[in-house]
Every structure is written in C-alpha cells, then in structure tokens.
Amino acid sequence: MTVWILLRALIQLEAERIIRRMSEALQYLLGAGIVGVLVTQFVTSVRRWRARRRERDGLLRLLYTEIVQNGDIIDYVISLVE
What's the CA gap between 33 and 39, in Å, rounded? Predict the structure, then answer.
C-alpha cells in the first residue's frame, strides 16, 4: 500500500513538473508571437513610408516636367503675340 502511495505522489510530482514546463514553453511561444507581430508591423510601416516617398517623388518629377513644358508653350505663345 505504501508503495502505491509513493508511486502516486511521484506521478503527481512528475505531472506538476510537466505542466510547469508546458507553461514556460507557452510563455516563450507567446513572447515570440508578440515579437513577430511587432516586427511585421514595423516592416509594414517601412514599406508604406517607402511607397509614399516613391509616389511623392514621381509626382514631383511629373510636376517639374509639366512646368517646363508649360514654360516652353508660354514662351512660344508670347513670341507669336509680339
């Protein structure tokens, strides 16, 4: 009978240790998941910023081209009027 009590206690201690290890593993997994989400958000923000910058630079180049072309047209029209 005493052997069974000791065996039961040993099994219970082993189960508690396993549960503790699983709890620690779960904490690490949750921490890694949070870090993964933060990295993803940061990368997404950088991509958006780069896309906005590229779009802005393209629009500025287009505006500069339009201004130069309109300046040439205005100079041509002025030469016709004079």
Answer: 10
How many Cβ atoms sit within 10 Å of the Cβ of residue 17?
10
- pLDDT < 70 regions, the chain: 1
Length of the chain measured in residues: 82
Q: Can you give the pTM of this predicted structure?
A: 0.57
Tokens of 44: 């997404």
- What is the rounded CA–CA span in Å between residue 82 and residue 75? 11
d(CA 43, CA 36): 11
Phi, psi of 46, rounded to the nearest 5 degrees = -65, -40
Q: How confident is the model over 11-34, as pLDDT tens digits?
A: 888 888 888 899 999 999 999 999
Q: How does DSSP assign 20-45, residue by residue? A: HHHHHHHHHHHHHHHHHHHHHHHHHH
